[in-house]
Amino acid sequence: MANMMVKVEGQPEAKRLEKDAVVRFTGTLTGYTQSPFMLTWEKAKINTEDLPEEKGAAKKGPAKKAPAKKAPSAN
Q: What is the pTM of this model?
């Protein structure tokens, strides 16, 4: 049985979260009931490290270094 309701605002990428995913978030606690136990959070923001990547998004590899320039020779 659910024991929290979290209303996320301003983060459309949060729709990619899967059921039962464990996430960290910040928000404003706006409600509490003792029986059945329920916490209600509003204006929540999910930690961006916990959001899954968009499907089909290219994964970034390591940054490439620009080729080194040769110093002019002193003849």
A: 0.62
52-59 long-range contacts (CB < 8 A, ≥24 apart) are 52/16, 52/17, 52/18, 52/21, 54/13, 54/16, 55/16
CA angle 18/23/28 to nearest 5° reads 115
- Chain centroid to CA 37: 27
Per-residue pLDDT tens for 35-52? 999 999 999 999 999 998
Question: Between these two residues, 41 and 19, which has the higher pLDDT value?
Answer: 41
